[in-house]
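Predict the assembly for these two chains.
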Amino acid sequence: MNWLPHISPRFFRILQRNGQVLRRTWQVNFLPPILEPVLYLLAFGAGLGLLVGDVSYRGEAVSYVAYIAPALIAINIMYNGFFENTYASFVRMYYQKTYDAIMATPLNLDEIVTGEIVWGAVKSLIATILMVAVISFFRLLVYPQALLIVPLAFLGGLAFGSLAMCFTAVVPQIEVFNFPIFLFITPMFLFSGTFFPLETLPHWAQTLAQVLPLTHLVAIVRALAMGKLQAQLLLSLLYLIIFSALTFVLAILLMRRRLIN
Amino acid sequence: MVSAVPPEAGIGVSEMTYLSTKTLPSNGQVELTRTPNRGKYVTLAFTAQSDYYGLDRWDYPARMRCEEMVEDLVFAEDLHKTFNGLKAVDGISFRMSKGECFGILGPNGAGKTTTVRMIYGFSPVSSGTLEVFGMDINKHARLIKAKSGVCQQENNLDPDLTVFQNLVTFASYFDIPRATAKNRASELLRFMGLEHKKRAKILELSGGMQRRLVIARALINNPELLILDEPTTGLDPQSRHQVWGRLAELKAQGLGILLTTHYMEEAAHLCDRLVIMDHGRILVEGGPVELIHQNVGANVIEIESPSETLLTYVEESDLDWERLSHRLLIYTRDGETLFRKISESFCDRGCSLRMATLEDVFLKLTGRELRD
């Protein structure tokens, strides 16, 4: 079948290429995952947390800081996958014509796109390791369960990276990324059970939130962070896997439509 | 290795000899199949197993050709390319042989770039046959790309990497081992006169240097076919001549070069054979000198502000002439005699005799209207 992605392990070359570039710029790239949680935890923990007090999570009262810390990790996973495969990929594709150059080598477009998405997931993973390490200092994570957040970050990176790549394949110019950010990323940032429990929302909004991938990612990360695993989370995991698979294939098809003619 | 060839593969003696001179991957299993391909190629597929960063092993079919049987590097027959109803390439046929420099000339929008894009597997063929190294581009794009070097029209060097990293990283896309890639990269930088810029960033290079680097990059995989899409557009005369010099050297080493250009001088300089395209079709095909002789003759007489009597004279004669706004061009095989006659009888100044060039052929065939 022609529409199926045509991929060999050659996509690994794209990761090597991007990795080589990262070696020069890693300080800039990985400062946010280290600094951001500290800033957020200070602001929300010391500031807002005093006003809010404790939050109820699965019938137990937890401090507000402990409640939002896992959400910060999930948001960071989303941001790394999404921004790598929107702005950074678009620059490589549109301005630098890097894809065009590589398409004249034994790599094909499907492998280039795959390499880019997997690269976004690897960046999510690295950023998550750093962030988990920082948050551990605040004693907000329960080990060993919290270690599973690291492989989850890779899956999350794939999900948001694939979604991002779909946008990259269709936007006419770089400014247009403001739309998906305004329409998807910001609402998800706020309404995926990140900073307040979903139960406080009206019923219709709760249902709507279940469609958002970040809701599921936050749910799993939070459960892992607090060491409270439930079978129900497997559904969230399944959702993320299916979401990643569908958006991944869609990203490849849209990218082919854009670049192969 | 060769003794492992099963007799049912039907490999002839000369082919066996050829095979025995080639080094096959030591851990590869040779499995031979013969594909009739207009009788010119024998396809020997072998399965090599490659350790690739411990990721996995996958089949890497490669084809080998028997040297004495090889003729065409590129074979196109009734090739079409349509974009949204627009016929960019409209039924072209040509062949390009090994070791030849083949030019595709034409005004902007003639279909040159579209043609080469199909050849390096960038653009899918709409209809017709297109074979590179005897392989169908639709089926073997990856293999064809592995053996070709491509210099696209735009300088798409990787600005995130240094000059040297550009070459080494590009080599990795061809699975060239890092140590080999580094040697090859240094060698190519020397060849292209870019050694001193090894550690420079791409944006620090001049246009000419970038172009030379693109050509160096296209050579990183030791290609058997070098495809150059307008390699010297936008270069100053010094850079252009340097590029020509290098290309001539590569040609002398037996590399097949496929070139698109709208510099006639470039085509006359480098190409053994060329086609002139317009509106997606091939107008003429032949060697530069042959084309000049066939289409415009040996000489051109140019007359500035021709007098009425001269115009009447040429109109009544059977001369091959062309009237421009302030000039009259007469194409002729016997320049000297005609020139003497015309300059004596019709004009005392602004009348000159020169050799006919490819540009005359080009303008005569494709017209003089602007294309952009």
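The first helix of chain B runs from residue 13 to 21. Confidence is low (pLDDT under 50) at residues 1-70 of chain B.
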